[in-house]
Amino acid sequence: MNAGQQQLDDVQDGDLHFRVPASAARLTALRHALTEWAQECGLAAEDREALTLASYEAMANSVEHAYADHVEGVLDLRAVRDDARGQVTVTVTDYGTWKPPPINPGSRGRGLPLIRGLTKTAVITPTEHGTTVTMTWPAALD
C-alpha cells in the first residue's frame, strides 16, 4: 500500500479494512490489495474478477459522487470472509452526500447496474451521514 493507506486495527484475522482519503489516486492500490485478499481467501478466479470490478466501481462512485465542491473526505473499504455463511462481503462506505444524478446522464450512470450484475447481492444504503454499498459473493473456492 502507498503511504497514507494503512490497514486498520479493527479487523479480524484474514479480513481487510482500509480507510483512505477519497481520491481517485488511491483506488488502484486498494484494488490490488482487494484482489490479493480475494486470492488469499481462495476465491475462484471468476468471483475474484467480479469482486474486484464491482468493488472498484463502488469506490469510484464514492470518490466521484460523495464529496461535492472539492470537499475532502474518506472512504472505507472492508472485506470479510464468512465461512459459516459460505460468502464474502465487501463494503465501501463514504461519509459524504451524493450529488443528485443528472437528468440526462448520457453514457454515464452504469456503475450501480454493473455492481448489481456482478454480485450475488448488492445493497446501497444512503444515510444523512454517508452511503454504504454492501456486496456479497459465494465463497466458492478454486
From TrEMBL:
Histidine kinase/HSP90-like ATPase domain residues: 20-137
GO molecular function, one term: protein serine/threonine kinase activity
Tagged with keyword Cell membrane: no
CDD domains: HATPase_RsbW-like
A Pfam family: HATPase_c_2
Entry keyword set: Kinase, Serine/threonine-protein kinase, Transferase
Protein name: Histidine kinase/HSP90-like ATPase domain-containing protein
Phylogenetic placement of the source organism: Bacteria, Bacillati, Actinomycetota, Actinomycetes, Pseudonocardiales
